[in-house]
Amino acid sequence: MNVPPDVSIIVVSWNTESLVDECLASIEQQMPEDAFYETIVVDNASSDGTVELVKAKYPKATLIANDENLGFATACNQAARRAVGRYFLLLNSDASLRDGNVRKLVDMMDKDESIGVISGALMGSSGRVSVPCKSFPRPVELILGYSINLIYRKPKKSNNNRNARSIKRDVNGTKIYEADWVPGCFVLVRGSLMDDNNLLEDDIFMYYEDALLCCKAWGKGLRVLAVEFTVADHVSGASSRQVSVTATRYSYESSLVYVKAMFGDKTLKWYQRVNRGIWRVMFSALTALNYLGITERADEKRKIFRSLLAVPQRS
């Protein structure tokens, strides 16, 4: 009798062929044995040979090749419906496993049924390792993100878990952080978070689906944790950087779903009204800069605000 694997690893790709190669190679190198896991790759209509690569080099992986880009959340849900593992490991195509400690995450889940989502640490391109802990963003923070921060983005300071709800140490001295939410680029998720045939919010194309997943976990009485004993390399935003204007629009559209789910209809209406008012002012100011000869940077930002203003209002 075949025993289902413990972990179903879900990798979603869109035109990141070389990174998908690194990601899948790291899974084969770092995961303990075939019986422990299965790999499901969902390709969102890549045009760079990703599908051919997976078929040729990674025949053990289950491949779902979409004819169009359905977005990250829908693709994850496609894989989750096909998965047979007890847990889902969401692993971005621009991430790769760095050590063989995924089993430790599974052991933590097995020993503590209060854990719904758990993330390991992430190593960025600079070599800095961080354990990601995020607070649920408030509407005012989001408004700043889609206005002032699009014009002038301050260099990020290392928050190094300052947003953790609590920090504890296990018997081996490893720090365990409890957070509102953790990024979905490297997270182990309990199977019971699959409901209505979906793991992630299907109304989202990309962005904020991980925050809402963690919100769902808390709503079911499950905790969201991050630990420092297992690390994945992560090249952030490899797909979205290819289409920055479009990515910003997708992000804002997803924020509408997030704001409605977290804060309700009245806040959503206020959020949209304030954003659109600010964008109109920003667009006019950037148009004026064009007349002053400051064109290249201003035109780039104008395209973003024009795209945001074209987003239909959501009720």
List keywords for this structure.
about 325 residues, alpha/beta, eleven-stranded mixed sheet, 10 helices, 11 strands, about 40% helix, globular
Description:
The protein is an alpha/beta fold. Helices cover 40% and strands 20% of the residues. It has 10 helices and 11 strands. Strands 1, 2, 3, 4, 5, 6, 7, 8, 9, 10 and 11 form an 11-stranded mixed β-sheet that branches. The chain is globular.
Task: Write a compact overview of the structure shown.
This protein has 315 residues and is α/β, with parallel strands linked by helices. The chain has helices at residues 17-30, 50-57, 72-82, 102-111, 139-145, 148-151, 209-219, 244-263, 265-291, 296-309, and strands at 7-13, 37-44, 62-66, 87-91, 95-97, 115-123, 129-130, 166-169, 175-178, 186-190, 223-234. Strands 1, 2, 3, 4, 5, 6, 7, 8, 9, 10 and 11 form an eleven-stranded mixed sheet that branches.
